[in-house]
Amino acid sequence: MKRLTAVLLALALLATLSCAPAEAAWTFTVSLTELQSDHAILVNRDHMLKESDKPGDLVAVPVKRASSSKIEMREVASQALEKMFEDASLVTAYTYRVQGSDGTWKEKQFSSEGGLRLVLKSGYRSYGTQKTTYNNYLARNNGVDDGISSPPGASEHQTGLACDVLSVDYNANNQYMNDSFYQTPEAQWMEENCYAYGFIVRYPADKEEITRVPYEPWHLRYVGREIAGYIKNSGLSLEEFTETWQAALAEFTAAGGDVDAQLLLESTRRANGFESTVLDVYGEDGDAEVSLSF
Ligand SMILES: [Zn+2]
User: Fold this and answer.
1) What is the mean pLDDT of residues 174-198?
2) Among 221, 237, 271, 291, which residue has the least CB neighbours within 10 Å?
3) In the chain, what are the domains?
């Protein structure tokens, strides 16, 4: 029955599309469904959340935590993070890089039967908690707002889609997080593989001028696997990505594209098992490899 409905929908859609001008096809790599989902949200100092904004589906994230307090995230992000932690624990050998005192980078081998050991430091933070976090940060930073801590409303942590992930060792040996975390196998493995779980490193080192947040190798943001794959391949920041897809959407509608018809077409395709983007083939080494096909 479900299949019949899907076929009928597809036929109805074809009839609609045959009347539409040919140039109005949605050709952007990422589906409109993903782009219009709430995990595509852009939050920064120009796109602030309201004090009352709180996700409705927060769950306690069932992974190793830096402290005994419960850490919550939206369900979809929590499940993805749980899977990432599990897979990281299976990575028993990994080549990473460390910087010597002369500034040069050298390869190093991580090897441990216990695998990479990740620990969750932070997840969802309410507007009120962020206010406290921000004020505490300012107090210990001589009142200087250097971008590391966001003012309330500007923090992605309020979406329930962002988290701070460290390695167990780094967390044990460092009171505060800074970019030295990058020199751990866990940070480099996450940077390489987190997109396969739908996460991006939200504040990359080479995008500080755009994000206006210093490099944070620990801050991961769930955007779903389609968007994460696109961002990984393109090297764009979330700000640039958002601008890019919004321009594509404006072009689409200007050419007579019908957003509702496109969303219906995509849901029909999904119902029939058609995926516009294929991600994450896990290699034997525990690394995820991306392949995109259309
Ligand atoms: Zn963070």
Assistant:
1) 95
2) 291
3) 2-289 (3.30.1380.10)
